[in-house]
Amino acid sequence: MKLDEILAFNEKFVENKDYIPYVSDGVPSKKLAIITCMDARLIELLQKAINIKNGDAKMIKTAGAQINNPYGSIMRSILVAVYALKAEEVLVIGHLNCGMNSMDPNKVIDSMKDHGISQETINTLEHTGIDLKDWLKGFNNLEDEVLRSVNVVRDHPLIAKTIPVHGLTIDPTTGKLTVVTNGYSIASH
Ligand SMILES: [Zn+2]
């Protein structure tokens, strides 16, 4: 069981005070909010590649680094980072070879069925107006998608125009960043 393994490790981690190098308060010292993908290749690589250490930034992770709903939990987290936790810049960082790029929602739905979710349940949801295929679909072009998500933040009525919102991509192997859109040219001073 993975949980048992995690708990056993954790007990030693705390006992040995291995947390000491990571102690910091909750205010991001680099004043950044970063929205990126949940991809496992980015767990350590992203932080190393952009020189972010524990305590430096608010990290918001979601599949594909996509911000779809202007009033969903990702956007809510960004607003909290900016207005309650003093983040001054927002970075949306998508990555090459993202699983959400060209993801087929039908395959996800098939996998749900393999796990015992019935067609009836799926039909019921669709009858209540939830378009599962649309909800689960990925994106076609990484740069376009980063820009689209950046614009959800930039155009948000509750985001001050003075907050720069940048869009980037990262190579999940080399850590190389590419700027899709630089927020300084758009934010007002
Ligand atoms: Zn991804």
From TrEMBL:
Binds 1 zinc ion per subunit. One of its GO terms (molecular function) is carbonate dehydratase activity. It catalyses: hydrogencarbonate + H(+) = CO2 + H2O. Its cofactor is Zn(2+). Zn(2+) binds at C37, D39, H95, C98. The keyword Iron-sulfur does not apply. Keywords: Metal-binding, Zinc. It holds the Pfam family Pro_CA. Its EC number is 4.2.1.1. It comes from the Bacteria. Belongs to the beta-class carbonic anhydrase family. This is carbonic anhydrase. The lineage of its organism: Bacteria, Bacillati, Bacillota, Bacilli, Bacillales.
